[in-house]
Automatic annotation (TrEMBL):
This is O-acyltransferase. The lineage of its organism: Eukaryota, Metazoa, Chordata, Craniata, Vertebrata. InterPro entries: Diacylglycerol_acylTrfase1, MBOAT_fam, Oat_ACAT_DAG_ARE. One of its GO terms (biological process) is triglyceride biosynthetic process. The active site is at residue 428.
C-alpha cells in the first residue's frame, strides 16, 4: 500500500475529530454563558425588586413624615446672639445704638442749655489766639520758621557741590534742628503776649517742620551715598513707591541733585506727609467736587468743635475744680465720666476734620497721590496696633527715620519700640506744657503708661475684649489728662477768682 493512501484517511479522521471537539467546546461555552446570563437576570430581578421595595418603603415613610410635619415645629439650630450661630447681620442693633446715642446726647445738650444758657461766643475764640488785635506773635513766629527751611536747603546744596564736608554739613543740620526745637519754646516762655492756643499752634507748626527737615536731611544723604556707588536716583526701597497707574504721564522723573530747589522743598513742606522723597506719587488732576466737599467739612466741623468746647466741655471742667481741690473722689469720678463723653466726641470730630478733611484738601490742591493718612484703627485689638494705624504720617516717619535705624545699629526690637514711645511722649508733653507754661508731665506719663498697657492687652486680651480695652483707654485716659492740666492751670492762674460750682 502506498504512503499517500495511508496519510489521506488519517488526515480526514483528524479533521473530523477536531471539528467535533470544537463543537463540544462551543456548546460548553454557550451553556456556560447561558447559565451566567440566567444568574445575572436573576440578580438583576432581585436588585430591581430590592429597589422597588426600598422605593415603596421610602414612599410610605414620606407619607408618614408628611402627616407628622403638620405637627412638627422644631429643628436643630443655635440662638442668633450665640457666637456659634454664624449670624452677622446686626444692622438693626447698630441703628438702635445710633438712635440711643443721639437721644442721650440730645438730652445732655438740652440739660446744658437749660442750666447754663448759650455759651458760644465767636469773639472769645479770637481772644484765644490774640490778646492784642494789633499784635500777632504766634503768626510772626510761624513766619520765622521759613528761615530754618532756607538754611536746610542751602546746606544741602553746598553738600551736593562738595563745598563743605559731610561732617560739617551734618553738624549744621543738627544745629538748625536744635534751634527749631528750642527757639519757639524760648519765645513762648519769654513772651507773655502769646496765648496758650496761639502758642500751641505755633509749636505744632515748628514740630512738623522739624520732622520734615530731618527726613529731608536723611534722604539727601542717602542720595549722596548712592551717587558715590554710581547710582543716579534714590532707590525705591528708601522711599514710598509711586504708583504708575495714578502718576501723570507728563510728570518728569527728578534725580539728585536736581531736587535741591526751593519749589521742590516747599512742595514737601506743604504736602501732607512727613517723609521726603524725590518723586512723590501724583494724582492726574484736581477734582473740584472732592475739593469743595472737604472745604465744607473743614468749615462746618471747625465751628462744631468750637461750639461743643464752649457749650459742653468748659462748664463740666469748671464744675470739676471744687471736687478736685477737696479731693472728693466720688464726685471726681462723676465729673470724669461726665467729661468723657464730650471729650471723646470732640476728639473723634477732630480726627475726621484733620486727618480726613484737611489732609485730603491739601493733597488734592497739591495733587499728592498717597492718601493713606490713617488705617482701620477703630478695629484695633491691641494698643500697639492703634498707635501704628491712627496717624500714618507720624508712624511712617518713626519707622523710617527712627525705629529701623536703631535696629540697624544693633538695638533690640523692644528697646527700639520703647524709644519710639519715649519720643512720642516727649513731643506730647512739649506741645502741651510749653503753651501752658507749666511742666507737670501728665502727657509724658500718660504716653509712657501705654507700654505696660500694651503689654497687658496684647498678652491677656484678644478679639473683642482687646478692642474694648483700646476704646476704654481712649475714652477714659484722655479726660484724666485734660482734668489734670486744667486743674493745675486753674490753680496757678484763677484760684483767687470765684469758683464755678455748678453740679
Amino acid at each position: 500500500m502506498d504512503d499517500r493512501e495511508i496519510v489521506g484517511p488519517i488526515t480526514r479522521q483528524r479533521r473530523v475529530t477536531l471539528s467535533n471537539t470544537r463543537r463540544g467546546s462551543l456548546k460548553n461555552l454557550n451553556e456556560l454563558n447561558g447559565r451566567l446570563n440566567e444568574k445575572s437576570d436573576r440578580a438583576g430581578k432581585t436588585k430591581r425588586k430590592a429597589q422597588e421595595s426600598q422605593a415603596e418603603n421610602a414612599n410610605e415613610k414620606n407619607k408618614r413624615n408628611g402627616r407628622g410635619d403638620k405637627m412638627s415645629c422644631h429643628t436643630l439650630q443655635e440662638s442668633l446672639l450665640s457666637s456659634s450661630s454664624e449670624f452677622s447681620n446686626y444692622r438693626g442693633i447698630l441703628n438702635w445704638c445710633v438712635v440711643m446715642l443721639v437721644l442721650s446726647n440730645a438730652r445732655l445738650f438740652l440739660e446744658n442749655l437749660l442750666r447754663y444758657g448759650i455759651l458760644v461766643d465767636p469773639i472769645q475764640i479770637i481772644s484765644l489766639f490774640l490778646k492784642d488785635p494789633y499784635s500777632w506773635p504766634a503768626a510772626c513766629l510761624v513766619i520765622v520758621c521759613n528761615v530754618f527751611i532756607v538754611v536746610a536747603l542751602y546746606v544741602e546744596r553746598q553738600l551736593a557741590k562738595g563745598s563743605i564736608s559731610e561732617q560739617f554739613g551734618m553738624f549744621i543740620h543738627f544745629l538748625n534742628l536744635s534751634i527749631i526745637l528750642c527757639f519757639p519754646m524760648a519765645t513762648v516762655l519769654c513772651l507773655p503776649s502769646i496765648t496758650p492756643v496761639g502758642a500751641s499752634f505755633a509749636l505744632g507748626v515748628y514740630t512738623i517742620v522739624l520732622l520734615k527737615l530731618y527726613s529731608y536731611k536723611d534722604v539727601n544723604k542717602w542720595c549722596r551715598e548712592r551717587r558715590q556707588v554710581r547710582a543716579r536716583s534714590l532707590s525705591r526701597s528708601l522711599s514710598c513707591p509711586s504708583s504708575p497707574t495714578i502718576s501723570s504721564s507728563s510728570q518728569t522723573h527728578v534725580s539728585y541733585p536736581g531736587n535741591l530747589s526751593l519749589r521742590d522743598l516747599y512742595y514737601f513742606v506743604f504736602a501732607p506727609t512727613l517723609c521726603y522723597e524725590l518723586n512723590f506719587p501724583r494724582s492726574p488732576r484736581i477734582r473740584m467736587g472732592f475739593l469743595l466737599r472737604r472745604l465744607f467739612e473743614m468749615l462746618l466741623l471747625t465751628q462744631l468743635l468750637v461750639g461743643l468746647i464752649q457749650q459742653w466741655m468748659v462748664p463740666v471742667i469748671q464744675s470739676s475744680m471744687k471736687p478736685l481741690q477737696e479731693m472728693d473722689y466720688s464726685r471726681m469720678v462723676e465729673r470724669l465720666l461726665r467729661l468723657a463723653v464730650p471729650n471723646h466726641l470732640i476728639w473723634l470730630i477732630f480726627f475726621y476734620c484733620f486727618f480726613h478733611s484737611s489732609m485730603n484738601f491739601m493733597a488734592e490742591v497739591l495733587q499728592f497721590g498717597d492718601r493713606e493718612f490713617y488705617r482701620d484703627w477703630w478695629n484695633s485689638e491691641t494698643i500697639t496696633y492703634f498707635w501704628q494705624n491712627w496717624n500714618i504720617p507720624v508712624h511712617k516717619w518713626c519707622l523710617r527715620h527712627f525705629y529701623k535705624p536703631m535696629l540697624r545699629r544693633g538695638g533690640s526690637k523692644w528697646a527700639s519700640q520703647s524709644a519710639v514711645f519715649f519720643l512720642s511722649a516727649f513731643f506730647h508733653e512739649y506741645l502741651v506744657s510749653v503753651p501752658l507754661r507749666m511742666f507737670r508731665l501728665w502727657a509724658f506719663m500718660g504716653m509712657m503708661a501705654q507700654l505696660p498697657l500694651a503689654f497687658f492687652v496684647g498678652r491677656y486680651l484678644r478679639g473683642n475684649y482687646g478692642n474694648a480695652a483700646v476704646w476704654m483707654s481712649l475714652i477714659i485716659g484722655q479726660p484724666i489728662a485734660v482734668l489734670m492740666y486744667v486743674h493745675d492751670y486753674y490753680v496757678l492762674h484763677y484760684q483767687e477768682l470765684p469758683q464755678t460750682t455748678g453740679l
